[in-house]
Write a structure and sequence with these properties.
The complex is a heterodimer of chains A (247) and B (389). Chain A is mainly alpha-helical and 247 residues long. Chain A has a domain of 162 residues: Ferritin. Helices cover 70% and strands 0% of the residues of chain A. Chain A contains nine helices and no strands. The longest helix of chain A has 34 residues. Chain B is mostly helical and 389 residues long. Chain B has one domain. In chain B, 60% of the residues lie in helices and 2% in strands. Chain B is built from 14 helices and two strands. The radius of gyration of chain B is 21 Å and the shape is globular. The chains are: A mainly alpha (247), B mainly alpha (389).
């Protein structure tokens, strides 16, 4: 089995260029004293001030869409939430929907990676287990689509929280789709996904109960149970893969 | 409303000033602003980047004009900064790409319909169907790679269906060069050529910049493939500009195009904060136009007003051109290019193009792989697939 982690000519550390780094340190202490560079004025708090100003004056990323139809606004599910901030619940449903939908694609990327590695005999991750998780993520996406439709919300809209988790997911996606990343590196990224997903479903169940949506809360309990299993599987796969590499 | 370039002198170049804060305004909302606000932001960034590009080149070739051009160019650079910084950071590179293709489709459609010269209109329709196909390929990639719906960006204005397949758009340069407009062509024709060249140039640069950012091999290849077609489009559209026109004449026309485009933007913008930017820059561009008009008069001893005998009464229409695109698709998707002409017989392409295309496509075609069997569905193709789960 070829190792994906190995010793080599990594040039990033200071110890790889001791003479140059020594000179850099000298320069940093001497040339920094030149009056004209002005670097001694102020501190890192200057940038913090700039950030605070922007935070105080900013707009939000966007809004939760209004129900597309009058019918949507008067749906029984929506009625139950009268007096509460229903948009918070809709926003979080939209977030989870986007997360699960992207999750399906992330598992597809991971399965492709594992198939590639299996062909080369490098790692022996259970593709069947990954397919099982993939299918459940798709079911959760469907569940959330139905939940939003039932409440009269538009499941095809990108809510603000959906937008923000999209930004969050970019790094994960880059890890999963890079042909150079190893199975353990990909599983590590998926562990982040599953840990966050578990906590998010717990929150969604709580929110559904608070909003008087007990039937939805019950269905979400089922999704959480599945996610707990996903987390356990990914954690175990990662552990096995890293230990196998460590020998 | 009409536009007469000589009605107002605009803001003098010396008064076109900014602070860093102004240059980095609050961005638009990806979710709440109308898609055409983003279309205008992307378009104007392209227009300004092309102004800077042309002026940099001119500065290299004109000793006497270096300072006045450098002064205008600095303002254009800062205008570009303010405009490009309007794009909010929650736009992923792929989402911006979808926005770029929407610009290409909707703006080129408007131009094709306004264009007074039938041959030039044909050129725009030809290019339009190619960008239309790029949107479909990128939308498929976005759906299948990121699990996102391109329509969150397009907002229902632009269809996601194949056009002239990207795989057959690859042509030898001799089949990308078109016949240029002449000195007596309609000024609107000249403005259109400068405008679409600018838009395509920035698209090419964006894909060249972001292609290597992607980790996914299919995405990397797709950006490489479509960037190559955008390079062809730059060749095509820039070849419409009369190569016998000297630099100052071309620069004057470019400034006129910038005034015209800001005018079109400010007339249709519904976000008041952004509208104020278009209005401000409309005045800035009039300032540039009149400065260049003076240089033109002084250097070439010609009357700049003779180039613009009448007011412009047709603006860029920032709206969905769905019906127009569908009609062009039905009637012209089969067209191919042979030299500067378009031919009906798709088997009559030139040998050099066929060889060029076969070479590029020899090891597989990314645009086909990225979108094989793809059909857009609201909420992504998974929304359709999960129904039976």
């Amino acid at each position: 089995m070829a190792k994906s982690t190995q010793m080599g000519m990594n040039r990033t550390g200071a110890q790889m260029a001791p003479e140059n780094v020594k000179q850099m340190q000298q320069d940093a202490s001497q040339l920094m004293q030149l009056q004209d560079t002005q670097v001694q004025v102020g501190s890192e708090f200057d940038a913090i001030e700039m950030r605070l100003k922007e935070i105080a004056e900013t707009d939000r990323v966007g809004s939760v869409p209004l129900p597309g139809t009058v019918k949507g606004a008067v749906k029984a599910g929506m009625q139950k939430m009268m007096g509460r901030n229903a948009e918070v619940f809709i926003d979080k449903l939209g977030e989870r929907l986007a997360y699960e939908r992207t999750g399906v694609r992330l598992y597809e990327a991971l399965i492709v990676k594992c198939r590639g590695a299996a062909q080369e005999g490098r790692f022996n991750v259970s593709i069947d287990q990954l397919l099982h998780i993939h299918d459940e993520e798709a079911r959760h996406f469907k569940l959330l689509t139905e939940a939003m439709t039932k409440l009269g919300a538009d499941p095809t809209a990108m809510t603000p929280c959906a937008d923000v988790v999209g930004v969050q997911s970019i790094g994960i996606l880059q890890v999963l789709t890079d042909p150079r990343t190893s199975i353990p590196q990909c599983l590590n990224a998926m562990l982040t996904v599953e840990l966050a997903d578990n906590a998010a479903w717990e929150l969604l169940i709580q929110l559904a109960q608070d909003m008087g949506q007990d039937d939805l809360a019950e269905q979400f309990e089922g999704a959480l149970a599945a996610e707990e299993e996903h987390l356990a599987i990914v954690k175990q796969m990662l552990q096995d893969a890293v230990q196998a590499e460590a020998g | 409303m009409t536009l007469n370039l000589f009605d107002s002198k605009g803001t003098p170049v010396a008064k076109q000033r900014f602070s860093w804060r102004e240059l980095t305004p609050k961005p638009i909302s990806k979710l709440d602003d109308d898609a055409f606000t983003r279309v205008r932001v992307i378009l104007m960034n392209g227009v300004e980047s092309d102004a800077v590009r042309l002026q940099y080149a001119m500065q290299r070739f004109n000793r006497e004009l270096r300072l006045p051009i450098a002064e205008i160019m600095r303002a254009e650079h800062h205008q570009q900064t303010m405009i490009n910084w309007l794009l909010s950071p929650d736009h992923s590179p792929l989402e911006i790409t979808i926005g770029y293709e929407q610009v290409a489709i909707e703006v080129t459609s408007s131009v094709a319909q306004n264009e007074p010269d039938p041959y030039l209109a044909q050129v725009y329709r030809f290019g339009l169907l190619e960008d239309f196909d790029h949107l479909y390929r990128y939308a498929a990639l976005m759906d299948r790679l990121e699990g996102k719906d391109a329509n969150n960006i397009l907002q229902g204005y632009t269809d996601i269906i194949p056009g002239r397949p990207t795989s057959i758009q690859h042509r030898h340069p001799e089949d990308d060069l078109r016949d240029p407009y002449g000195p007596d062509s309609d000024p609107l024709s000249k403005i259109h050529a400068a405008l679409i060249t600018a838009a395509e140039y920035q698209t090419h640069e964006y894909y060249m910049h972001y292609g290597p950012w992607f980790a996914d091999p299919v995405a990397r290849q797709l950006y490489a493939e479509i960037a190559s077609v955008e390079a062809q489009h730059v060749t095509q559209y820039s070849s419409l500009i009369n190569p016998d026109d000297d630099g100052l004449t071309q620069l004057l026309m470019h400034e006129a195009m910038e005034v015209y485009t800001y005018w079109s933007c400010m007339e249709q913008e519904d976000n008041p904060r952004i509208k104020a930017i278009w209005e401000r820059f409309f005045d800035y561009e009039l300032g540039h136009f009149h400065t260049v008009a003076e240089l033109y008069k002084k250097t070439l001893r010609k009357d700049p007003q003779a180039l613009f005998p009448k007011a412009f009464d047709r603006r860029i229409e920032f709206k969905s051109h769905r019906d127009f695109v569908a009609q062009v698709l039905q009637e012209e998707v089969h067209l191919r290019a042979r030299g500067p002409r378009f031919i009906e017989d798709k088997d009559a392409e030139g040998e050099r193009t066929i060889e060029y295309r076969e070479t590029l496509n020899a090891d597989g075609i990314p645009s086909d792989a990225a979108s094989a069997g793809y059909q857009w569905y609201p909420g992504t193709e998974l929304a359709r697939k999960v129904v039976n789960l």
